[in-house]
Write a structure and sequence with these properties.
There is one protein chain. The chain is α+β, with helices and mostly antiparallel strands. 16% of the residues lie in helices and 35% in strands. It is built from nine helices and 38 strands. Strands 1, 2, 3, 5, 6, 10, 12, 14 and 15 form a nine-stranded mixed sheet that branches. It has an eight-stranded mixed sheet with strand order 27-28-26-25-32-36-35-34, covered by helices on one side. A five-stranded antiparallel sheet has the order 22-21-20-23-24, with helices on one face. Strand 5 and strand 6 (118-121) form a beta hairpin. Helix 5 crosses helix 6 (342-355). It comes from Caulobacter segnis (strain ATCC 21756 / DSM 7131 / JCM 7823 / NBRC 15250 / LMG 17158 / TK0059). Residues 75-236 form the DUF3857 domain. This is DUF3857 domain-containing protein.
């Protein structure tokens, strides 16, 4: 069973714990209970060790997952029995469970060592159980109020069997008791027994599905109770294919849900955001809104200024205690305390946009599992972030108040990489694709100009100019606002010198335009290594890094589920580079060697040129990705093309006798 999701997206750090936030958190089951499993649980016997000629250090004997679902919530029974076979297995000598004290109730059933047929109880009704609020993500500006119960296993020895079992009862009152379940086959080696058992009564709208590699369950019914069962012996977990998009990396998984559709989630979330965005008549936010309105009547300008207001005047802090996992703070509360999580910042931005006459709505997204989300069963737990989708002149603009430092104009904003979004509407909504297009302008542009006109044996003054757009430019702008310029200069010099040791840096300058475009200019002297080519009897200068043949290839896959899945490729990406060498004697007698080619390698449009004109040797290259996936059948040819291109040397050849 996976952890239940909450809406959060940490982007900044806080220095201290918010006492105010903790004081407002509701209290419920802050300590676990102790006792036997409920009657609906079928308690298994301890299996014999599996047949495994390559066992791991801790061998899995039992992986038992049983759950009961109804219209109010769910109960999840989990039991793991492992045998320590090697000293390395002793490192897993603790057991812990984390829960939300408002929405969860934990009952610990068993923690015991079986040694030489004798059972040693380690729970002792909680005497050795440490219960604490860890706030393990505090440094990421997240306060979730979750509790952790932990037990250190004393006197654990090689050969011991560890038996650990508990039940987690989960209720999501804010969402009408809807719930979901995720079971995944993920372990090392062979498991003696693997069981998944789901129970639900008639009238509970439970649906389920399995992914490739998960056994087909048996579904039966006794009276008014439905049962889904998978029960395997000597089971191996399927391994995901390397390099595949996220949707292919979930083999051996079962998911179940009591949500009736994506629109069900959308409708249930909508009242929470509608209520939270009610702005009081005397709110101190109103003068800020009036100031934006007075500055421009253009809805694009207003929307962007609203985004900057939320980014610049409220900091990020996730508050997940009580109902905070899904329920946003009110607009007045977020504005008055000047901090909020993604939900609070979204409500703040929605309110400002509404008052400015800009159409907008909240949308739920997954920051790390968006690929293939449209094919999964609907569950609120699949989303961990919320932002705003504004509609202006028929175009969607995705506005994220948890970002910082956005400058320029609203049309400079790019769609986020989350793939799918669920609009939050009172009438409900279907999941929608977030469309990303190939870039029409490089994010990174480099120009290196080496002046060798003074002679091959003379120092060559060099200027390196790097232009950064998009996140690269905004990143430098943020750094300039946070750190002293001298510190950044020191860092940039060290960074550049680590990959450009042929250049002795004398000066560095950098700045960012109001549109967020960064420009870094480095001046220095190049150590040009002109080497004699005995085959032609002439000195040659090979451009640093060219012709190395080094390339990051698509790896070949081992057999398994989804082995023929496409490969994920970086998208959208666009970069270009130019190297110019000013030659002695106007280039008389010099020549150049290098590829003059354009074409496609994998999902990348590649262009390379080499020419000598007006006494300057000029080499260019550009790479622009045009897709995020490469078909499996195209991989070997793509690897060959990449190797050929990486082996192409770029050379300036001097006249004989130079």
């Amino acid at each position: 069973m996976s952890d239940r999701g909450v809406l959060s997206f940490p982007l900044t750090a806080v220095a201290a714990l918010s006492a105010l936030a903790l004081a407002g958190a509701a209290r419920a089951d802050e300590k676990p209970s102790y006792g036997p499993p409920a009657k609906w649980v079928q308690v298994a016997d301890i299996p014999a060790p599996p047949v495994d000629d390559q066992p791991p250090s801790a061998q899995l004997l039992l992986n038992d997952n049983q759950s009961l679902h109804d219209t109010a919530g769910s109960a999840f029974y989990n039991r793991r029995i492992v045998k320590v076979l090697k000293p390395e297995g002793l490192q897993s000598g603790s057991r812990s469970i984390t829960w939300d004290p408002v929405r969860d109730k934990i009952t610990l059933h068993t923690l015991a060592i079986i040694r030489n047929g004798q059972r040693i109880d380690l729970l002792n009704q909680g005497q050795d159980v440490l219960v604490l609020r860890r706030e393990k993500n505090l440094e990421r500006a997240m306060l979730d109020g979750r509790m952790t119960a932990s037990v250190q296993i004393k006197d654990l020895q090689v050969g011991d069997i560890v038996d650990w079992a508990y039940t987690q009862e989960h209720t999501e009152a804010l969402l009408g008791g809807r719930t979901s379940d995720f079971e995944a086959m993920a372990w090392s080696g062979v498991a003696s027994r693997y069981r998944v058992r789901l129970l639900w009564a008639d009238g509970t709208p439970l649906t389920w599905r399995v992914t490739t590699g998960f056994p087909q369950p048996k579904v039966s019914k006794t009276g008014k109770t439905n049962e889904l069962l998978v029960d395997l012996t000597d089971a191996k977990s399927p391994k995901p294919p390397i390099g595949a998009p996220m949707r292919f990396l979930r083999p051996g998984m079962l998911e179940a849900t009591t949500y009736t559709g994506w629109d069900d989630i959308s409708r249930r979330m909508a009242p929470l955001y509608a209520k939270a965005s009610e702005l009081s008549a005397d709110s101190s936010l109103r003068p800020e809104i009036a100031q934006i309105a007075a500055a421009s009547a253009d809805p694009k300008v207003r929307a962007f200024k609203a985004l900057q207001l939320v980014e610049d005047k409220t900091r990020y802090l996730f508050l997940g205690m009580g109902d905070g996992g899904y329920k946003p703070a009110s607009v007045d509360e977020t504005w008055s305390r000047r901090f909020g999580d993604c939900k609070g910042k979204t409500v703040l931005l929605l309110t400002v946009l509404r008052e400015l006459g800009v159409e907008a709505e909240p949308v739920l997204v997954s920051t790390n599992g968006g690929d293939g989300l449209d094919a999964r069963l609907p569950s609120a737990a699949l989303f961990n972030h919320v932002l705003v989708r504004a509609r202006i002149d028929g175009k969607s603009y995705w506005l994220d108040g948890t970002r910082s430092g956005d400058v320029g104009a609203i049309d400079d904003l790019r769609p986020p990489p989350f793939r799918w979004a669920l609009p939050v509407r009172a009438s409900g909504a279907a999941i929608e694709e977030i469309v990303q297009k190939p870039l029409d302008r490089p994010d990174t542009e480099g120009l290196i100009r080496i002046d060798a006109s003074g002679g091959l044996d003379k120092p060559a003054p060099t200027v390196m100019t790097t232009t950064l757009r998009g996140e690269g430019g905004l990143g430098l702008a943020r750094a300039l606002r946070v750190a002293p310029r001298a510190d950044l200069e020191r860092s940039l010099k060290q960074q550049f010198s680590s990959s450009n040791s042929w250049l002795t840096i004398e000066k560095i300058d950098f700045d960012v335009t109001p549109q967020g475009v960064a420009r870094i200019v480095i001046s220095g002297v190049a150590d040009m290594e002109w080497r004699l080519n005995d085959d032609v009897g002439a000195l040659e200068y090979k451009l640093p890094g060219s012709g190395s043949g080094s390339v990051k290839a698509f790896p070949r896959r081992e057999p398994g589920p989804n082995a023929d899945a496409p490969y994920a490729t970086a998208f959208p990406v666009y970069s270009s580079a130019v190297i110019e060498v000013v030659l002695p004697n106007q280039g008389g007698g010099f020549s150049v060697k290098g590829p003059n080619w354009s074409g496609r390698v994998a999902n990348v449009e590649v262009s390379r040129t080499a020419e000598l004109r007006d006494g300057v040797a000029r080499f260019t290259q550009s790479s622009r990705s045009i897709g995020r996936e490469l078909p499996f059948a195209d991989v070997e040819e793509a690897n060959k093309a990449a190797r050929r291109l990486a082996g192409e040397v770029q050379i300036v050849r001097a006249p004989k006798g130079s």
